[in-house]
């Protein structure tokens, strides 16, 4: 058995991963799998050997709110920039396996102690050496800095971070946390470690002057236009094959699609209503994978703000809302079928997804009955808070449908549209009757332990960073979640019943009204080579240790002959066990019975 060069005990990570692979495979195989629909994908092939160089232009719906990893919101532009600029101690590969990044290895000494051996010779873009003191600084920055991303969970779980020597760091936890290593990728929220020197230099302005150790370094930010990053010539894994990457702000969806087709943008996250059209376009590769976001209709279950309506403190009203909303209609009309109707807290394609717990089907009669029992036979009037299209593309259109659907049971809805920052602020403060927003996580880090932690009372609001914005305070959930958090992922027989029971309670109590789980869909031009869907948020462009080396074809070739002829290739059915924490390919989506549009 392989041993760590700096510790006496053997590394057990390989054995643990093997156990997890077998256990998780059994979990996925236990799910019901309806006959898969016919799905086709467009396949590209390079006609000549690409040359290095060029600038990759990525079209995004909005510019990042910040490139400080403790402030950046969980969305594509921010995560794409963070992955290029920063690295954490660990990284997940495209199959969901944990690999080393700024750490060379790690050892779990006991239930609450982890020791990481750090990589030597790595420098931040400003020349600051990376060492154990940077990890200690990051711990303090998470706790005391200006950002709140991941702060509550980190402070709850991590007791201390200590430098044992220049390249050895010890993390001591407050309690047993079997998923701690994967949870590290949720902090910041990608786990990326910034330069302490740059933070001290720029202070509150660090988010617009980001400095990390990643394959690309910051060049300039033209507000309302572009963020430009250049290849890091000194990158420890070797200089990227392209010279630069640009995040180009293109708020209009139709314009973003046109720029992709014309080649002025080479990579975009696809607005789902355009996905079917793009699949039929020659010269374009469309990649589809797991649901990266669940859209929900939220209400404060125990609302501490007397200015807002108390209707939703009644379980019968909450259940009525769940029956009155036709989720499939929203998926069909707003997303052109590119989403799964939500069931529970865990979204489609992730460990703990419970299709067998589905309770609420569209039923106007049942909804009216419950409202009458609650004392509202004629319904009531309330406000629905939602985000503008430039921040949440499907929110406004979904809100209009929900307004019309709720009107059928006597509930008059007034829609209030605000920008993303205002929405987040109002939701954290619980200044809403109904609020429609998204909940997304970070791929491998989205274990059932991490996702279900959101409904623990420790995360109840109001307050910035308190993700339990429904203000759920249920002692049953708290107890079950704490047991789940102490259970290793490989122990499926223990955590699966806990996960199911947590979600069964949330569903029965109607603590939220989950709407749909959006499929992750990206598209590239034929010029882009080596790109694959990253199971976490955003685009991964250069990470050789996990096999990611995206390049640009500089030969001038537009497309292959097959593409010019409009030929598509259907994927072969996957016969292998699903050994990862999530699913990234259309093929595996078929095996899970996904209703991907043709």
Question: Can you tell me about this structure?
Answer:
The chain is α+β, with helices and mostly antiparallel strands and 598 residues long. It is 28% helix and 20% strand. The strands form 6 sheets. Strands 11, 12, 13, 14, 15, 16 and 17 form a 7-stranded mixed sheet that branches. A 4-stranded mixed sheet has the order 1-10-9-8. Helix 9 (315-324) packs antiparallel against helix 11. The longest helix has 18 residues, at 492-509. The N and C termini lie far apart (48 Å). Mean pLDDT is 83; it is low at 1-48 and 557-596.
SSE order and pairing:
Blueprint: H1 13-29, E1 55-60, H2 76-85, E2 90-92, E3 98-100, E4 103-110, E5 113-118, H3 132-144, H4 151-157, E6 158-165, E7 168-173, H5 180-183, H6 196-202, E8 216-222, E9 226-231, E10 244-249, H7 253-262, E11 267-269, H8 275-279, E12 284-298, H9 315-324, H10 327-334, E13 339-341, H11 364-373, E14 381-387, H12 395-407, E15 412-418, H13 420-428, E16 434-440, H14 448-452, H15 475-485, H16 492-509, E17 513-525, E18 528-529, E19 542-543, E20 548-549, E21 551-552, H17 561-564, H18 586-591
Helix pairs in contact: 9-11, 15-16
